[in-house]
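hey can u run this one w/ zinc ion bound, need the structure tokens asap thx
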Amino acid sequence: MADKALRGMRLGTQSMETAAGAELAARRDVHYDCPNGHIVTLPFSVEADVPLSWECHCGALALLRDGDRPKDDNTKHQRTHWDMLLERRTIDELEELLEERLELLRAGRLG
Ligand SMILES: [Zn+2]
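ok here u go:
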């Protein structure tokens, strides 16, 4: 019983500070533009999936500023259409399909 009480106290007083201080690596500021004119700036790890919107302190939904979208190809979290395609087809199959389509195209039978 006493054990439980102690554990509860520890949880309440623990802070994230040590963990946050340990990994200061690779962060960037991401900006969200609130429709009410506020700017929300949040530090994200470069490896984090940055949400496209964030709730502003005024309660409105602030939208991710375009220039802040991650452009480096280190981010492999998002699957592209190409990735999904490769999960269903092999390169060989795709080449075959491409060849078929090209033949149709050359024959003037497409679109
Ligand atoms: Zn706002």
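Residues 34, 36, 38, 56, 58, 60 surround zinc ion (CB under 6 Å). anyway lmk if its weird
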